[in-house]
# Entry
Amino acid sequence: MRDQPIRLALLALVAAAAGALPALAAATAASAPTPPRRTADAALVRALQDHDWTLRAAVDAAGKPLAALLVPGHPFVMRFDDARVAVQGGCNLLSGSWRLSPQNRLTVGRVASTQKACEPPLMAADTAMASALAAPLEARVEAGEPPTLRLVSAERQALSFSGRRTSKSLYGAPTRIFLEVAAQRTACTTAPQPPGTCLQVRELRFDDKGLRVGEPGPWQAFHGEIVGYTHQPGVSNVLRINRFKRPQPPADASAYVYELDLVVESRVDGKK
# Structure
């Protein structure tokens, strides 16, 4: 019986040593250098986000044009925001999430679409673009004026876009306003504008629920342009506008840049 205390002491020592092994392993792992984690090319991400990209060419692996994507007068324009990419030019607005791998492979999440009906070629263009974005694409930006974005699929289908700097990248964050554009243009009256006609606009206000509040502002002649908006005579529109302030506007130009964000409402003149 005299050796029993010795045996118990040995067992306790072995148990204590075993309990220390996980802590020792954890300490060793913590002290080991962590391999650097690869991330997407920051310069490429910045270039994607700082430009609006207009589709100029689309070819298959044999160099044959992809006609469905190239409807005359309706070029696709792609814009990368922080978390989503939007593409418009066919019939509907296409949008989805996006990410760029460390190997510069662009992946677009499930594409959502607005639900307008248009001429068959425009509807087919939307379908072709959604299909082109459905699989990962090799992405690269080639320097130049303008820069060129090339997206290449595993099947070597290639889309080429020319870039134009976004207003946000040039002027910073915008102010959101709403303008109602009258169905007919009006005479430009403010010097030094040459004789001609201008859009006729007034400012509207909406609450957080999207309901109009207060009285509309006075009708005014709008000098200049609203980027992304094309006026159709006889059609009035309510527009959601991003207004950017120029830091140093030219003497003969507006202090602001107006850019269409969304057509909220359209109405043919004389129809309710």
User: Anything to note?
Assistant: Residues 185 and 199 are 5 Å apart (CA to CA). The mean pLDDT is 85. DSSP finds four helices and 16 strands in the chain. The helical segments are 4-31, 42-49, 120-132, 167-171.
